[in-house]
UniProtKB/TrEMBL annotation:
Name of this protein: Amidohydrolase family protein
Keywords: Hydrolase
One MF annotation (Gene Ontology) recorded for this entry: hydrolase activity
Length: 375
């Protein structure tokens, strides 16, 4: 694990009592940023989190309103999903029953996969070591939040309940949430919660009843006709670059001519491929892209967390990471993006507040919560 870049971590959003813990979490985040793994290949990431979660479990540090002899000890249990690179970690509080079946359980999700993009952040000492794979959507920060959340849960009075941590693979367009559901990773869960970093002002929280993100879809267009000599396009049945360029322009009229003015839709071309030699007109060219639609939503992007919410109630929210005047790019899916570590203390406290509110218990006192994060 690298510690590169840790010295620049500003802990002004974390109380001094926990600054050392958050510095270690940033080191963990930098490690995952430096060693990204693509969809359904997150095995090293999965192993690291399993070992982290099961190493040195901490007994609850607070007094429970039951006699010690009646309490079963706190337990962490991690298991890999059967047919994916996902990971489930159950944090069970001390119980006064002989079985943990039927305990109220709420789940928190963080995605682990990367984008198939080559990072261009030369100033980052912890930039991706893997060509064609980089954490350009902040998933390294999302799973690090779950790790920090787990650390605090182990120190809380989590009695007669269960908190489940879902480390999910393949969120980037490959429906990892669907695979987690098929693997029965959310069986026994009562509610689910998740978040995504977003290019809004640092520390701002964005949510609303109903849909918060847009519907997304992917498409592929191929143009296939006989190729030819680049110096003799008049002898070629169709010059590939001409219809392809026409298609790109024409695609932009779909939204303007088919979507009401009060609504919005975006069609974007992400890749264009074709040809092998500069002196030959290719016989095949291919483009891929995405289409998204939204109506008054905080972020025009899509997330497969919605599949969880089709199974159980819950909430998904946005957390802003942009500082005024900073040089670092926080725009998602850019090849110069980097997650803002300063938001981690707030994110951890938000998850803890949600957990204690929905489980109807006091995990930490208001003073202790303030020691984790204070605006």
């Amino acid at each position: 694990m690298t510690s590169a870049g840790i010295s620049s971590f500003n802990t002004t959003m974390a109380a001094p009592v926990h600054a050392d813990m958050f510095t270690r979490l940033v080191a963990l985040r930098c490690h995952f940023h430096e060693h990204p793994e693509l969809r359904f290949q997150e095995t090293a990431t999965q192993t690291t989190f399993a070992l982290t979660s099961l190493t040195n479990p901490v007994s609850p540090r607070r007094t429970l309103p039951v006699a010690p002899a009646q309490v079963r000890p706190l337990l962490l249990f991690a298991s890999s999903c059967l047919s994916s690179a996902g990971l489930v970690v159950n944090v069970y509080g001390p119980t006064t029953t002989t079985t943990r079946d039927g305990l109220r359980c709420i789940a928190f999700c963080g995605d682990m996969d990367t984008l198939p993009i080559t990072e261009r952040n030369p100033s980052l000492a912890y930039a991706s070591r893997i060509g064609g794979a980089a954490h350009m959507c902040g998933h390294d920060g999302h799973m690090t939040l779950l790790a920090g959340f787990a650390c605090f849960l182990q120190r809380a009075a989590l009695a007669n309940t269960c908190v489940r941590l879902l480390f999910q693979p393949a969120e980037e367009g490959h429906f990892g949430a669907v695979q987690m559901i098929k693997d029965r990773c959310i069986d026994g869960v009562d509610e689910l919660y998740g978040y995504h970093n977003a290019p809004f002002s640092l520390g701002s929280v964005h949510d609303k009843p109903g849909a918060i993100m847009s519907h997304g879809s992917k498409f592929t267009i191929s143009v296939n006709v006989p190729g030819g000599y680049s110096s003799a396009p008049h002898q070629t049945a169709v010059t590939r670059s001409s219809p392809l360029g026409t298609i790109v322009v024409a695609l932009q009229s779909i939204a303007s001519r088919n979507v009401a003015a009060a609504e919005s839709a975006i069609i974007s071309i992400g890749t264009i491929h074709g040809g092998e030699a500069d002196s030959a007109i290719p016989s095949t060219m291919r483009m891929t892209g995405t289409g998204v639609s939204e109506a008054g939503l905080p972020l025009c992007a899509s997330e497969d967390f919605s599949y969880y919410l089709q199974q159980h109630p819950g909430c998904f929210f946005m957390l802003g990471t942009v500082e005024v005047g900073e040089a670092q790019n926080r725009q998602l899916h850019s090849d110069t993006f980097d997650f803002n570590d300063k938001v981690l203390p707030l994110a951890v406290r938000l998850f803890l507040e949600i957990a204690q509110h929905r489980l109807a218990c006091e995990l930490f006192s208001p003073v202790e919560m303030a020691a984790i994060y204070t605006p």
